[in-house]
Amino acid sequence: MRYWLSKRLPPFTRVLLVESGSRQLLEDLLGGLYDVHPEMSADLLTCFAGAPNNFDEKRGKVYRVNDYPTSQARKSLYVELAANRYTVVGMICAAEPIMTKWKWMIAARLPSKVFVLNENGDYFWLDRGHWSSIRHFALFRAGLSGAGAVRTLARVILFPLTLLYLILYAATVHLRRKLRTL
Fold this sequence. Notes:
Layout: E1 14-19, H1 23-36, E2 41-46, E3 62-64, H2 71-83, E4 88-92, H3 100-109, E5 113-117, E6 123-125, H4 131-141, H5 148-181
Parallel strand pairs: 1-2, 1-4, 2-3, 4-5
Antiparallel strand pairs: 5-6
C-alpha cells in the first residue's frame, strides 16, 4: 500500500477495481470514472461471471479469482498485478462479505493508492489524511457507533463472565454426577 502517508492523489492512468460487493455499485462508479478520466485504463478483479455493463474491455482486462484456486496461482496473480503498475486501486467495502481476504491482500501487496467505496456509493481514500473517515467506517462496521455501541460493548465485557459461569456450571453438574455414581 503506497501513498499511506501522502495526501497527494495519483493520476488515474492505470486503475484496478476490486469488485467485492454489489455489481450495481461498480457499474455506477465506472460510468463516472470514465467520464471524469477518459484516458483511464481500468482492470477488474472479480468473483462474478461476465463484466459489468459500463466496463470497457478494450481498455482493460478482467481477472476472475476462481481462475486462481491454489496458493501458487494466487502468488502468480499478485506478481502479474504488481507488474501492471497500477496507480490507483478501488475496492468495494459494502456490508457483504465477498472477497474480503482478496481485497485486503491486494491492497497490502500493490504499491498503489487505495480508495474504498461503501454500499451508499460514498468513497474515501485509504491514507492518513482521511483517518477520521477510516475510523468512523471501522467503528460502524464493528457495531461500535450509534445506538448499538453500548449493547456491543456490554456484550464484549460480559462475554468472559458468561463463559466462566457456563464452565463452572458444567463442571458442577459433571462433578455431582460423578459423585452420585460412586
